[in-house]
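User: Before I run my own analysis I want an independent prediction to cross-check against. Here's the chain; please return only the structure tokens and, at the end, one sentence I can use as a sanity check.
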Amino acid sequence: MGILKFGSQIGQTVKNVGRMKTIVTVMAKHGLAEIAERIQLVKLIPGFSVKGDKEKEKLTLPERFRLSFEELGPSFVKLGQVLSTRPDLIPEEFAEEFKKLQDDVRPIEFKSIKHIVEEELARPVSELYKSFNEKPLAAASIAQVHEAELHDGTKVVVKVQRPGIDKLIDTDVSILFMIAGLVEKYIEETKTFNPKGIVEEFFKTLKKELDFVVEAGNMSRIRKNFEGHPEIIIPQVYRNLSSTKVLTLERLEGIRLSDKALLQEKGVDIQKLTHNGVQAFYKMVLVDGIFHGDLHAGNMFVLKDSKIGLIDFGIVGRLNQRTRDALGNMFLALVMEDYEALVYEYCEIGISTGRVDMDHFVKHVRELVEPYYGLPLKDINVGKMLMELTVVASQHNLKMSQDLMLVFKALVTIEGMGRSIDPDFDIVKEMGEFSKVLFKTRYDPEKLTREFTQLLRDSAGLLYMLPRQLKLILKRLTNDEWVTRIKIDDLKQYQETLMRGQQLLSLSIVIASIVLSSTVVLIFHKGPSLLGFSLLGVIGLGLAALLCFIFLISYFRK
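Assistant: Structure tokens:
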């Protein structure tokens, strides 16, 4: 086994050296030989030398990188596409150039596709499908899509992973990680971009995209989230005809969202269409916490009755409740044109990489948003502004997560598509409308009751255990049981202070709960009224005020 393992390692090393030669050759071909030499990449390949192309050096540096990435294939194209959404991590001119990266791949011959399907699903294609179109419907860097029909007549599409793509990506990523280390070592100014961290995050994203079982799970979950929303269609996944490398889905037939002329010809209600699309996006991001991470015209279809069909869930973003709340507040700040609140929410959801000077940050943001003051909200490009704010945030030691960047990228795309088919499209107005839905979702009486019950349960457990734990700690302190032998004077006074703090904490939790519950009752006008206000809500707030008064008297007396 040891010999086999050693042989495998040698084989992988030889493969890596061969691929490195290709990478360096392509870099030199596109005018990047000087960079390859600067990071000592050439020295890692024995007996190898490169000569730069002087003609290509006339192009800008971002253009030369884009051309190199396109020629080097799927891993590099995907990396460039990911980086195009991160102007906070790389210079803006690179991010803009990488947006032009396109998959340029030849279709795989059907013989190879058939072999993968049969190997993955362990049955002949003829048994699995009634018919299987040998000509691909679409071909991309990771997979190829074919039309097919099940034996019961159901029309489906079959997504098949390109043969060997997983091994190629593993090889490329290992080389990219090594190159990132060399870049950090020999190009000092790149350390702030954290090249190794970028490659590591990229690899995690790409591995998920390569696993079609993960994609199937994402689709099924999002499809379930839209039950009761007939305006949004997510294809059904046929699990018995799917695996890690094969994905069989319900076929959606419709019009590309970008085809405005055909949409008008078919009498599609454009305003209803854009409204449904944006509201669905907000629902995924702010309510469900799982959303389509690669929204563009190619992944969205207009079906009958202005319904919207979404496909290709290889990239999916996830947001926890705290981030969703902060993002909702951020959108509300945009609607209210409260840019200082916007800065605060950026700090709430950002990942701190150092000290944040809030005054300087607010000043910088104010300078950025000043040109927007006085403009009609519908004329403000919200996605672009959020991307610009993200760049500013990165200059103040605040980094956004990859999932948040997917949200901002999607907003840019949605705004562009919306305005291309509807000149009156107003994404900020749509935000305002959804904020009402969000408010009702957040402060739904049943949800608040559940949260309040959980709070009481947790508080009761805490209050029940606290005296015992406190006595145990005090006993150990008085018995000199701590290893560090801490001596505390006036121990009784500390004990009284802690007990009093416990009582005040309990009272403050009760007051906060009463205020929250009473506010909800007032908002939703539950029960009898007094001067137009809910009587129960007024009584609740009055009780909270009385308890607060008692709280303050008790605090200042002691």
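Sanity check: The radius of gyration is 29 Å.
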